Recover the amino acids of this structure.
């Protein structure tokens, strides 16, 4: 198959699965519309990946979730919907403008009580969470700047307990991670290798279809 045929097939398969299992609703559609209107980049998780994130919270029974990289709050809405009434999502975002859009989107979805968005460099916010004893979290989703992933994994482990799930978005990046000469994926390769080699973790990357093939790393903390 040529490249165009493959891309069309991936897009059609993704649309097929999303139409069946992750049909858009008013709050999600509005979140994407308002994010676009505010000029945010369309780099949110796909509808199906959002559904998977939601299911992982439900299956694991997570009550405290940490997200690194909020953007317009599209993934945050999925997490918050999966949480129990007294559950909490803390989401870290560098860009005040992104955070503002996300707060409005979360508010419109009726989830403000369960979601706290903290603005600033995630490195500082993570250090603050450790310092203030705000861990451990039940589930941590890493989805901010890709160069930061190896460091975010170290912080995540300090905010984990045995049983915590650590998730990493974009761990395949269209296959660029398997090209050792692609410098843009150096940090992601390092992250993937750290995840595989750390004896405290049991992990796998699940390949996902988006506009290109990407992947979600899923790691269970066995020991801290
Ligand atoms: N999880 C979102 C997508 C996040 S996109 C969703 O699926 O809906 C990545 C986000 O990380 C962007 O909003 C970007 O501003 C933010 N980001 C980049 N570097 C960061 C940093 N150092 N600290 C915190 N957030 C950062
Ligand atoms: C990019 C970032 C993401 O988090 C994502 O899911 C897709 C693309 C990017 O920076 O290009
Ligand atoms: Mg991502």
């Amino acid at each position: 198959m040529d490249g165009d045929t493959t891309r069309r097939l991936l897009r059609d398969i993704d649309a097929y699965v999303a139409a069946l299992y992750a049909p858009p609703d008013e709050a999600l559609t509005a979140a994407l519309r308002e994010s676009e209107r505010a000029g945010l980049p369309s780099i949110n998780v796909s509808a199906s990946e959002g559904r998977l994130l939601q299911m992982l919270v439900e299956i694991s029974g997570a009550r405290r979730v940490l997200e690194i990289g909020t953007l317009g709050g599209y993934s945050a809405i999925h997490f918050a919907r999966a949480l129990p009434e007294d559950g909490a999502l803390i989401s870290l975002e560098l860009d005040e403008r992104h955070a503002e859009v996300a707060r409005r989107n979360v508010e419109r979805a009726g989830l403000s009580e369960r979601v706290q968005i903290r603005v600033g460099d995630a490195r500082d916010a993570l250090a603050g969470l450790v310092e203030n004893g705000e861990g451990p979290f039940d589930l941590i989703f890493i989805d901010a700047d890709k160069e930061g992933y190896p460091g975010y994994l170290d912080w995540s482990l300090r905010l984990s307990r045995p049983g915590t799930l650590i998730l990493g978005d974009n761990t395949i990046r269209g296959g660029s991670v398997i090209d050792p000469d692609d410098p843009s994926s150096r940090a992601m390769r390092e992250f993937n290798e750290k995840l595989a080699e750390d004896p405290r973790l049991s992990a796998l990357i699940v390949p996902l279809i988006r506009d290109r093939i990407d992947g979600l790393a899923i790691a269970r903390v066995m020991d801290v």
